[in-house]
Amino acid sequence: MKKKELDELKSECLECKKCPLGETRINIVFSDGNPETARAILIGEAPGENEDKTGTPFVGRAGKLLNEFLEKAGISREKDLYIINTVKCRPPKNRVPTDNEKKACEKFLLKQIEIINPKILIFCGATALKSFFDKKIPISKIRGEVLELEIGGEKRKCIPIFHPSYLLRYHSLEEGSPRYLMLEDLKKIKELLN
Ligand code: URA
After folding, report:
1. What is the CATH number assigned to the segment(s) 2-193?
2. Res 10 pLDDT > 90
3. What pLDDT, in 10s, does the model give residues 111-162?
4. Is 123's C-beta closer than 6 angstroms to any atom of ligand 1?
5. How far apart are CA 11 and CA 32, in angstroms?
6. What does the alpha-carbon distance between residue 77 and residue 81 come to, in Å, rounded to a whole number?
7. What are the residue boundaries of the structural domains of the chain, listed by start?
8. Distance between CA atoms of 33 and 127, rounded to whole angstroms?
9. Residue nearest to atom 7 of ligand 1 (CA)
10. Contacts of 54 (CB under 8 A, 6+ apart)
11. How far apart are CA 27 and CA 71, in angstroms?
């Protein structure tokens, strides 16, 4: 059972003080979604204030916008996705996590990917993309492309998409706008999951 393995991993994570974020967190933000039914893992940047308070990823403004887009694309957050971040603890003042913080957390993230063994990894935003893809291509140029990357010793299908925080700044749904492209990318993911 995936759940049992993940529960054991979470217990280990709860004790983790391998980086300074472990000293300032309220909660670890381990995951959301159903590990038994999820066919994609969505990887965000890092927990924010609301996530730190609740222990659940993507529950603030960006999370609510993400939910709206997932619904429009016909992707179920509860059934189709397992949601995590590049780090499990909130960086102070929501700064971008450092390479050392991401490295300290990598073991948990890779183990989660191994246990879930998803059909697709979704890199949600530039921080998640850069954690796995070290070429200097901006997310705006590579979003929506299916990449084959070796992660944790396995070749995996990965798709970068915009981060919903970025979409909070652009409201247009016109063809070619960030929100339009986000919906296109999520619809493509929905098809790949079928
Ligand atoms: N932004 C993220 O990248 N992850 C969260 O969990 C919340 C906001």
Report:
1. 3.40.470.10
2. yes
3. 999 999 999 999 999 999 999 998 999 999 999 999 999 999 999 999 999 9
4. no
5. 16
6. 5
7. 2-193
8. 21
9. 58
10. 27
11. 28
Distance in Å, CA 182 to ligand 1 centroid = 16
pLDDT (mean) for 92-111: 98
CA 57 to centroid of ligand 1, rounded, Å: 6
Q: What are phi and psi of 165, to 5 degrees?
A: -60, -35
Could you tell me the two tokens for 60? 């603030």
pLDDT at 91: 98
pLDDT band, residue 1 (cuts 50/70/90): confident
Residue 43 corresponds to which amino acid? I
Ligand 1 near 30 CB (within 6 A):
no
For residue range 46-67, list pLDDT tens digits in order.
999 999 999 999 999 999 999 9
Q: How far apart are CA 39 and CA 6, in angstroms?
A: 16
DSSP states of 59-98 as a string? -SHHHHHHHHHHHHHT--TTTTEEEEESSSSPPGGGPPPP
Q: How far apart are CA 180 and CA 178, in angstroms?
A: 5
Select from 57, 54, 46, 49 the least CA-distant residue to 82: 57
